């Protein structure tokens, strides 16, 4: 069976990438190398050699299904050379196009579409011989659908702050809530989202001491507009009680000359109190921890909405970063030249799996390795 090009979502997105190789070096079409590389990673491949083994094992089926007409699979050195030569911006453009195809256009609940922006270091990409530090990538992660919407590299000459603002502007999404950690409590970050008719929820810490003191003061100076509590009994010896209060920030911020500019951007201050009991299996003793955190929001919502959005932001570590490192072996990867290309192949993989409502990524990769039919049946490929 041969699939028509127009019916192939992933191949259609990858075909738009410009191939900068000279004509004599185009024995293997770029779109097929990329497509088959994504399929290989979906089957558990973590290196160029394993991608080559996947292509060699399934070459006939791939030719039949996608019309590639390869007489033999490329060597792993050829695959490495082709992938390393791709412009990161070109692949990123294709990735964002594919993620938009997967993303639901309307929110599936009363909670607004929340997007967590967080950075991650590719720890294995350092090169001591070339005096090259490990690469860092900032990504936008849709909390509701657990899809990665885009990435931007963070240069060693800058930091995450301007890159996050650029990523918000480039995504151009309307009506969503961007959640960020305290580093991004910046006026320009608020402005970048507000220009797109979107919202911001960001943690407040001592990097803005005056704003932090005002956030603490608002609790004693005014009554909460709304509050909500959650009692969570975890599966791993953990009991947590969370209390969320929402305060109107107008009076506290407007009265301070130093915070006047902030009053035009912040509509609410959120206080989150966590009371956690953790059971230590070594000592057989319950340990109690308490924590109070403050957040600034550009728009007003109920306490339940803020509680969900804030908690899901920190869930990004488990749903995205942890899976990349433990299951997809991202930190263990020693790809040093253009490591962002392979990182995006992993993102393609995770998005396709999440679109198919798969929660256990490790099992899904093993199932795909066992069955080629199971692999190509995933929504987001065809």
Element layout with pairings:
Layout: H1 9-14, H2 30-42, H3 48-66, H4 76-84, H5 88-102, E1 114-122, E2 135-142, E3 147-154, H6 160-171, E4 177-180, H7 187-195, E5 199-204, H8 209-221, E6 226-233, E7 238-248, H9 250-254, H10 260-263, E8 268-280, E9 285-297, H11 303-326, H12 339-355, H13 361-370, H14 372-376
Parallel strand pairs: 1-4, 4-5
Antiparallel strand pairs: 1-2, 2-3, 5-9, 6-7, 7-8, 8-9
Helix pairs in contact: 2-3, 2-12, 3-4, 5-12, 6-7
In short:
With 382 residues, the protein is an alpha+beta fold. The protein folds into 2 domains: 121 residues, no CATH class; 236 residues, Transposase Inhibitor Protein From Tn5, Chain A, domain 1, CATH 3.90.350.10.
Tell me what you see in this structure:
- It holds the Pfam family DDE_Tnp_1_assoc.
- Residues 12-98 form the H repeat-associated protein N-terminal domain.
- Keywords: Membrane, Transmembrane, Transmembrane helix.
- The chain crosses the membrane at residues 32-51.
- This is Transposase DDE domain-containing protein.
- Mean pLDDT is 92; it is low at 1-6.
- This protein folds into two domains: 5-86 and 338-376, no CATH class; 91-326, Transposase Inhibitor Protein From Tn5, Chain A, domain 1 (Alpha-Beta Complex), CATH 3.90.350.10.
- It has 382 residues and is α+β, with helices and mostly antiparallel strands.
- It is elongated.
- The relative contact order is 0.14.
- Helices cover 42% and strands 21% of the residues.
- It has helices at 9-14, 30-42, 48-66, 76-84, 88-102, 160-171, 187-195, 209-221, 250-254, 260-263, 303-326, 339-355, 361-370, 372-376, and strands spanning 114-122, 135-142, 147-154, 177-180, 199-204, 226-233, 238-248, 268-280, 285-297.
- The longest helix is centred in the last third of the chain and has 24 residues, at 303-326.
- Strands 3-2-1-4-5-9-8-7-6 form a nine-stranded mixed beta sheet, sandwiched between helices.
- Strand 6 and strand 7 (238-248) form a beta hairpin.
């Amino acid at each position: 069976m041969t699939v028509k090009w127009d019916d192939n979502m992933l191949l259609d997105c990858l075909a738009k990438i410009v191939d900068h190789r000279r004509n004599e070096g185009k024995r293997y079409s770029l779109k097929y190398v990329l497509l088959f590389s994504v399929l290989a990673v979906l089957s558990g491949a973590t290196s160029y050699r394993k991608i080559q083994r996947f292509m060699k094992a399934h070459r006939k089926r791939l030719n039949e299904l996608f019309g590639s007409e390869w007489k033999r699979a490329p060597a792993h050195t050829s695959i490495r050379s082709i992938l390393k030569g791709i412009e990161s911006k070109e692949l990123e453009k294709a990735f964002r196009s594919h993620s938009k195809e997967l993303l639901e256009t309307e929110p599936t609940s009363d909670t607004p579409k929340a997007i967590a922006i967080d950075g991650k270091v590719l720890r294995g990409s350092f090169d001591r011989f070339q005096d090259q530090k490990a690469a860092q990538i900032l990504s936008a992660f849709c909390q509701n659908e657990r899809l990665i919407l885009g990435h931007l590299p963070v240069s060693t000459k800058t930091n995450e702050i301007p890159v996050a603002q650029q990523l918000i502007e480039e995504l151009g999404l309307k009506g969503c809530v961007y959640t960020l950690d305290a580093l991004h409590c910046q006026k320009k970050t608020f402005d970048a989202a507000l220009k797109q008719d979107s919202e911001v929820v960001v943690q407040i810490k001592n990097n803005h001491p005056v704003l932090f003191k005002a956030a603490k003061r608002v609790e004693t100076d005014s009554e909460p507009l709304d509050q909500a509590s959650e009692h969570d009994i975890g599966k791993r010896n953990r009991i947590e009680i969370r209390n969320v209060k929402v305060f109107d920030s107008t009076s506290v911020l407007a009265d301070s000359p130093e915070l006047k500019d902030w009053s035009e951007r912040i509509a609410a201050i959120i206080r989150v109190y966590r009371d956690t009991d953790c059971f230590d299996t070594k000592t057989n003793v319950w340990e109690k921890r308490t924590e109070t955190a403050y957040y600034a929001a550009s728009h007003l919502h109920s306490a339940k909405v803020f509680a969900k959005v804030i908690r899901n932001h920190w869930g990004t570590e488990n749903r995205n970063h942890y899976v990349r490192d433990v299951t997809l072996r991202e930190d263990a990867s020693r790809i040093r030249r253009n490591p962002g290309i392979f990182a995006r192949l992993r993102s393609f993989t995770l998005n396709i799996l999440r679109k198919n409502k798969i929660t256990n990524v490790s099992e899904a990769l093993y199932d795909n390795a066992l069955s080629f039919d199971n692999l190509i049946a995933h929504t987001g490929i065809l």
